[in-house]
């Protein structure tokens, strides 16, 4: 039997991100995204799910402020997004491209804090806290080349958290990891999200991953001119497992969009 949503779960958090009529074309050609509408609550874990080429990473980049809109509205914390902001931290799929290879793990995590001209002791206190939070104790003095793929992603995540970003924008961050490491990182991400109450937008093309992580899943249509075709509320408790009957119910429902 499918879970029912309790009265407490129905209560919606304040809106953190509001998107209306958002469209994007490159070089005045056919739209990549067209008429995207979405609201995301503060502290929500939201999934953008869709096949390759549907524009989900483009949409995430627009929220980050890396890509300009063609038309429509994109509001974060009641302000129009016009450029990147430290409050919107991005975790990329390829950690090697995001980390500074000449800096230690601790120095990578403290990089943004140093740019803010924080004193050394404050930087140390903050980085130490997030190094522990993401499970990197004892690895502070290592360099990225000495770490596994999963550990590098932990460094990326710790750096974003250390900058105290309200939003975590995650573009298929576990896509390059092996299956066992990916599952470990998914479990860790849920734990960190619960402890920090960050607002997360997570991009994936994997239905199982979407169901393991998200409170809501926005299914995107195939490109070009993609939009969010359907949004599913996923009231399943954490931790979630593939073998659960309710998990399979939602899996089949979402899979029907891609059959």
Automatic annotation (TrEMBL):
It comes from Bacillus paranthracis. Residues 17-247 form the ABC transporter domain. InterPro entries: AAA+_ATPase, ABC_SmlMolc_Importer, ABC_transporter-like_ATP-bd, ABC_transporter-like_CS, P-loop_NTPase. PANTHER family: BICARBONATE TRANSPORT ATP-BINDING PROTEIN CMPC, SPERMIDINE/PUTRESCINE IMPORT ATP-BINDING PROTEIN POTA. The keyword Transmembrane helix does not apply. Pfam families: ABC_tran (PF00005). Transmembrane segments: none annotated. One of its GO terms (molecular function) is ATP binding. This is ABC transporter ATP-binding protein. Keywords: ATP-binding, Nucleotide-binding, Transport. It comes from the Bacteria.
């Amino acid at each position: 039997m499918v879970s029912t949503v309790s009265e407490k779960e129905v209560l919606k958090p304040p809106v953190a991100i509001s998107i209306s009529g958002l469209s994007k074309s490159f070089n005045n050609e056919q739209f990549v995204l067209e008429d995207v509408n979405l609201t995301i609550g503060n502290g929500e874990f939201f999934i953008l799910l869709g096949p390759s080429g549907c524009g989900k990473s483009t949409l995430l980049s627009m929220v980050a402020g890396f890509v300009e809109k063609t038309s429509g509205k994109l509001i974060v914390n009641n302000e129009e997004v016009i450029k990147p902001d430290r409050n919107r931290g991005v975790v990329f799929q390829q950690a090697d491209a995001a980390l500074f290879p000449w800096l230690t793990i601790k120095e990578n995590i403290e990089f943004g804090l140093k740019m803010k001209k924080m004193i050394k002791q404050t930087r140390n206190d903050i980085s130490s806290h997030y190094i522990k939070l993401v499970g990197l104790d004892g690895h502070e003095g290592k360099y990225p080349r000495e770490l596994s793929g999963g550990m590098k992603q932990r460094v990326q995540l710790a750096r974003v958290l250390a900058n105290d970003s309200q939003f975590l924008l995650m573009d298929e961050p576990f896509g390059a990891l092996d299956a066992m490491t990916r599952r470990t990182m998914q479990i860790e991400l849920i734990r960190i999200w619960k402890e920090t109450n960050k607002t997360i937008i997570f991009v994936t093309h994997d239905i199982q991953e979407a169901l393991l992580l998200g409170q809501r899943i926005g299914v995107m249509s195939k490109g070009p001119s993609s939009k969010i075709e359907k949004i599913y509320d996923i009231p399943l408790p954490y931790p979630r497992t593939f073998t659960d009957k309710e998990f399979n119910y939602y899996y089949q429902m979402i899979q029907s969009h891609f059959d």
